[in-house]
Amino acid sequence: MAAFAIGVIGFQLLPWPLAGWLALAVVPLLALLLARGRARQLGLLALGVAWAAVAAAWALESRLPRSLDGQILVLEGVIIGLPEHTAVRQRFLVRPTRIIDYPAERPLPRRVRLSWYGRAPDVHPGEHWRWRVKLRPPRGLMNPVSFDYERWLFQNRIDATGYVRATGQARRLGVEWSVDALRERISLRITTVLEGQSSSGVLPALVTGDTRGIDSSTWHDLNAAGITHLVAISGSHIMLAAGLAYWLIGGLWRRLPRVPLWLPTPLAQAVAGTLVAAGYAALAGFSVPTQRALITLAVLASARLARRRIGYLRAWWSAMAAVLVLDPFAPLGPGFWLSFAAVAVILLIVRRRSGRGRGREIVRLQFAIALGLLPIMSIYFQRSSLIGPVVNLAAVPLVDVLLAPGALLGTALLFIHPGLGALLVQGLAWTIQILLIGLEHLVHAVQPLIALPAPVPWAVALGALGAGLLLLPGGFPGRVLALPLLVPLLVGIRTGPDFGEAWVTMLDVGQGASVVVRTAGHVLVYDTGPTWGSNSSAARVSLVPFLRSQGIAEVDRVMVSHADDDHSGGLATLLAALPVDDVVIGESFAEAPPGARLCIRGQAWRWDGVRFRVLAPSARGLRGNAASCVIRVASTGAALLLAGDLERSGEQELLKQVQRLSADVLMVPHHGSRTSSSAAFVRRVHPSLALLSVGRNNSYGLPAAEIINRYRRLGVRVLRTDRDGAIQLLLGADGYRVRARLRRDRGGYYHLQP
Question: 470 lies in a domain?
């Protein structure tokens, strides 16, 4: 079991193309499955790699072909899951049944994530629709530290994304029964009874896993307190339901005459617990955490039904192997690691009871879990909650013993005895409201979220070893090394450029721009990327997480080239997240903070041996692209020119008025528009490398093919964020060096490659 699991996990974690070479290398080893002893274990490891590779190949084959990227297609399919409704759009998952003119040799996408904008009829689970849609293969931003949307899509078997075109041509073809439709009906019944109370989103989450009604501020408070796992249905809820059924059936079975002789009580308990867990998991839409819990429970129940004793370690590995057989992509998400690590910690602590009393053991267990999960939190979230163990001590029994069972009972009564059910649901809602208010005050008073540094593989490995040593019994050899081993994980490895050097990171922010320039002791942010709707921005998703991951607690200067949203949209988010000493803007705009200075030619400064000089604009009062703030950054041996959305008129002015315009690296002006990058300008700058910040398949058709060809004809190498992801450079004494192209250098097999 362990060898097979390690094989699957190893394939999933390796970067591409190493994973592909590994899959080919293990093919001859599969013959060892017929051997004995340790040779057979090697064969089982090879089987795990082979199984993961086959599943990956089939999943990639189901993706939307690139030939259909951006094409208008007619899609027929059934809505699955629970649609998300906002004032401007609906977003939902579709299981395709037919796509007209789809290549016959390719399997249909398993799931499609669609958005439907504007005034459109509400969609519901189980409905069968026909739409005209514009589809794209799964794709996300690729940055050093940020949510990996592309990996999330792959893990959730979403093979295409897109949006509905021509709303008037959409047709509902029929309705079929589904568990998701039942979930939506139950959630609607609960929210109707609660009439929009602020706590009305929590109860549906406890009953059906429907978290759509929980607002962002509540999520923040729950996350800061370390109890988000208690709200949506997770493994603990499944195990609780199974345990309750196990206990009730045990009490009932022993009171039934002769029935235990036909079906022994332990076997009846195992069957009942598994069936109840399966029903609760179905009610939660078979989310990934509930699937893992159900599979684990099924492994334990199978051992009981087979009348076989199974040790803790064997049960743990067996459950992991079973999960990976059914879902070989589970290691791509944090839930897999958090759940199995938490269970491992619990088994380690429970097996060696100290006899100190039940209360002290529970307290010790909560802190042990927090410690054991710390390396995983560092990898996936770069933050942890200081008060999580303490809050969980009160929240776990409250939710598991009172709120979750009460919510299930109240929901059942809503359909059996509506008056009594409404009374119970209202009482639970009031209890939750009081708890949320108390939690809000606690979080705001304590500010418990602590930032963890960017995960360095060897620091994470040492931290995991240190956490493991602390969890071992007292007197175990080497425990004295535990705290020193944890230091790199908690404090981070503070690396940075040397004196006279600059590290440059052009982040992948879609159609927009954001560049971070670090010297030995200072940080410059040039542009902050676009906003996406009212609640999200590139600064929130990409820029701020990157700065925090680098241990940057303060930004020395932010320069916004001009007021266009794709360059200035994230400024407010950045100012709210981190202290900024100085803000310089190319032109005035409403979101600029009081005290912001205008960018003007002649401004210059030196940080740690690196020179910064503003080359444009030459006059105040310019608007739009003409106001773009152009900066030359020069280390002791290389120079970078940041050109914003400079157009040809501005380029011509620079050619006339600026003597020193050459640079080794050029940020391509205006995202590669035809109105920029004149041949004379490119020749004068004479870069050997051009950086292009652009969104994939953007609606503006950027970059223009003639502009790219111009750079290539002049011998300039072009790197672009839509193909390479975030781009990192070193400007040093011996010139410049490309440190990383995230999509090519660190992408997995599931990332779309250029």
Answer: no
